[in-house]
Amino acid sequence: MHALAFIQDMAVIMLVAGVVTILFHRLKQPVVLGYILAGFIIGPHTPPFGLIHDEESIKTLAEVGVIFLMFSLGLEFSLRKLFRVGATAFIAAFLEISLMLWLGYQVGQMFGWSHMDSLFLGAILAISSTTIIVKALNELKMKHERFAQQIFGVLIVEDILGIGIIALLSGLAVSGSVEPGAVASTLGKLSLFMIVALVVGILLVPRLLAYVATFESNEMLLITVLGLCFGFCLLVAKLEYSVVLGAFLIGAIMAESRQLLQIEKLVEPLRDMFSAIFFVAIGLLLDPKVLVEYAWPITVISVVVVLGKILACSLGTLIAGNDGRTSLRVGMGLAQIGEFSFIIATLGITLGVTSHFLYPVAVAVSAVTTLLTPYLIKAADPLALWIGRWLPQPMQRVLGIYGEWLRSIQPQGEKAVLAGMMRRILLQVGINLSLVIAIFLGGAYFAGGLAGWLSTWIADPDLQKACIWGGALLLSLPCLIAAYRKLKALAMLMAELSVRQNQAGRYTQPVRRLVSEFIPLLSLAGILVLLAALSSSILPRGELLLLIGLVAVVVIAVLWRWFIRVHSRLQIAFIETLEQDKGGHH
Amino acid sequence: MHALAFIQDMAVIMLVAGVVTILFHRLKQPVVLGYILAGFIIGPHTPPFGLIHDEESIKTLAEVGVIFLMFSLGLEFSLRKLFRVGATAFIAAFLEISLMLWLGYQVGQMFGWSHMDSLFLGAILAISSTTIIVKALNELKMKHERFAQQIFGVLIVEDILGIGIIALLSGLAVSGSVEPGAVASTLGKLSLFMIVALVVGILLVPRLLAYVATFESNEMLLITVLGLCFGFCLLVAKLEYSVVLGAFLIGAIMAESRQLLQIEKLVEPLRDMFSAIFFVAIGLLLDPKVLVEYAWPITVISVVVVLGKILACSLGTLIAGNDGRTSLRVGMGLAQIGEFSFIIATLGITLGVTSHFLYPVAVAVSAVTTLLTPYLIKAADPLALWIGRWLPQPMQRVLGIYGEWLRSIQPQGEKAVLAGMMRRILLQVGINLSLVIAIFLGGAYFAGGLAGWLSTWIADPDLQKACIWGGALLLSLPCLIAAYRKLKALAMLMAELSVRQNQAGRYTQPVRRLVSEFIPLLSLAGILVLLAALSSSILPRGELLLLIGLVAVVVIAVLWRWFIRVHSRLQIAFIETLEQDKGGHH
């Protein structure tokens, strides 16, 4: 790209975007739509002529805009928030995404679009727009109401699921078909990668940022943040995931840093500049001819988005035990599509699997539903009143009984405490096992390179394998021991609960001990078999395996306490990072 | 540029820059040198291999970095500051730049370098580095001492002169020779452009920014600022000046905005990110072979820079009436080259007029002198003491007498007030005449287009010319009248002072009236002749000119008061903008 042409493009983009967004702000419409309109005006499809010289460079900067956009979303996301999100968010988000994926696919098929176009349409319709909702609630001054909090919960779950959808679609587009096994494998690897990245990242990154922050230089902190952000995106891209995932994950990791507020302030102008380019670039791609040609699908899909999302989200919120008014307000707040849809539509173009019309259609549907959002939010209350008046009496009674029943089955008092403990233990076991699995998968992945490196000392390939496998086992021992101890605690808890004195009589103690010893050992055996299967390519022969096992037993016996100390230190560091104060973030 | 390659480049740049700058910060060395070293490490000239894929894109972003760098310098510059800067700054800056231009040229010739290389070397050595000095003084905690204030004054004058040097070099590189007439014409046009841009910009831009700021959206303010910045750079580039000038000017204009602090905070991360790319890109160009080959010139030039700048700046400060210690501290603080030198060296490459070795030599000299800066500042006090002890008595007495003489010739009391008034009047006349000249030059420049547009109504080309010239005259009448009135006030003041009662006796009043009427009329006639010469291409024939003159006289007679009111309103708006509080800026 030539410098002057680039400056000219930037000048045109920023000037037109500035004027149009001021206009849109005065008309009380979302600024994002202003950007898209600005892109449309200066784009190659609108008269008098294309004002952009170097479209390729603008597209690259738009990609950087996506990175900053997702990085900011990640900064606003936080694991603590995800843990605190109630059942409402999970149920509503799952229901919404499943229904919209199915509806989108069906609508695509109805219009006779290809298999892949229909699939992408479903994905495009699945996720609501955080940007639009936050701005709309801000402008309506409803950000602190209860339904708004429920909406933010749904959006957090949606972000995670949206990341999953993007990873799945990238995989599907390459393989070309939807096989349940492949989907499960993709999702499994994705979850594994996310857990490992989050655990390792939260252990390292906030400490690094705290160190850099001691220099009290905004410049150095920014450069470090940018280095980590782009570096992690690159790593994720090399692992053949989308950079969107990378930007979101590194944002979520930095959200656990004590410097969060400072980082947000430093990144905000960069995000605003590059995301403006991203949204303008979306407008550049809009061809009015396509919009006219596809006016009918755009109308149908817009109606499907609004009705489908209101139905799914309201129902999900209602099922989770909220009152009708709140449920309707949540549903009507979430009834639009936005930045995730653009990213998914762009993905389709980049992978070359979707037709040319899908992108403009997605943008048009987003524009229509975005414009409707404030009116829908404002209409929710009158509509709830109206429904309440016209809903038949029996129906209302059923809802009331359902709510009471739901409250009655929720664990209370001692039971709630126990349920909380069990959830916590299972989470810890899950994280530790994920780390173990990642170590073994990593060992298998890098086996070729490691073997080559080992070959200077060890000639026998079987011995090399044994070394790699043994090394992986040694490295994962702290996590394995921790998982075993947590499982034992869980088993004791379960033994206490399930084997009652009045049933087992004088055998109570022995039976309880049996249960509490047997369950963790059985689980551990299961885990080892699973590991052996996952690392089959580097699993050594029988006698060597036996030898490794013996060595491991000796190591465990000698270093038991040390392993526990190392692990508990890491765990404390991790939890401290999660629970430290980030300076009153909203 | 491909998105992933670009992300990879960004990741490499930011990660290496982050690590190296942290290292440099720990070693208490300037971060800027860290960036350059980072670029050198990842560059194509250093083993093991070039880590940058898309050098072209990085260069473009480096150019954007220059824009943000100069824009930030402009934001920190301010006309108020320039007006307040004392004689010290002007004398030291002029002396330094003249001496360094001459010394640089001579050194280049001594090494047998080409005419153009020597000229660029002079320019590269002329301007000291604001970035380096501010950081060094910050770290030494000397920012608020008297000599530091003197240094900042010199830097402000240097910025303006540096901009002039860049404009001159661009012109020279194209024409290939240094003709006094061409230089004067270039500098004249440049000054005219700067004055007009500043006056018009300060009347419009702060008002626009205040309007956008009422929306209380950082995003919209940033987009507007970026639009104005890139837009103005584009305009300046179309007028065939350097974008460096444009970025600096629009920054200086925005420095008069009430939103200055907010704008600085929004632009800071963008500047830090892009200027990091700029400095890394400088390192990318460094070829160690050239550095070794040119080790001797680098040494000589570094010594010349340090000694030359210390001598020129200390002498200038001393001449302006400061004590020896302060003078030496000012001189030793300014003894390095930095960002302006890189920009000028880049200009040489872009224009294709300098040899390949000049750029690495400039960077190496900058690195050496930058590394010396903190030590020089710290050494200034001991050196001043040492010189004081060893300076011969007569020499010290001469200095003392000079200082007293300087104080004795400075206007005091009533005279100082009068001198201030006269300076103010001359400044106002100068600005108004600049605007008038710009209007006529603009008329001549756009005459072709305007004539074409007029031809639908007026066929005769002579009549068209008359219309354009008349229009320019009408447009410039408020400024002409204001200039005339200011000149009259000046003439009255001078008559009062020069025609004394005891000399002219009873003719005092008539002679005074003669002087106070005669001088402004003579000046006005001179101005009109100058305007006629400048706009000779659109000057109509004799009788038409007479007609226009008659119309002008009638218009002036009828609208005299209205013209004065319009002009004074604009003037009040301008001065209010200059003098409003920008929220406690440093």
From TrEMBL, chains A, B:
Which keywords describe this protein according to UniProt? Antiport, Ion transport, Membrane, Transmembrane, Transmembrane helix, Transport
Which top-rank group of organisms is this from?
Answer: Bacteria
What's the protein name? Cation:proton antiporter
Q: Name one Pfam family in it.
A: Na_H_Exchanger
Q: Where in the cell is it found?
A: Membrane
UniProt record similarity statement: Belongs to the monovalent cation:proton antiporter 2 (CPA2) transporter (TC 2.A.37) family.
InterPro entries for this protein: Cation/H_exchanger_TM (IPR006153), Na+/solute_symporter_sf (IPR038770)
- Topology with regard to the membrane? Multi-pass membrane protein
Gene source species: Pseudomonas benzopyrenica
Transmembrane ranges, per UniProt, are 6-24, 31-52, 58-75, 82-107, 119-138, 150-172, 192-213, 220-237, 273-292, 298-320, 425-446, 466-484, 518-538, 544-564
**Mainly resides where?**
membrane
Cation/H+ exchanger transmembrane domain mapped to chain residues? 14-377
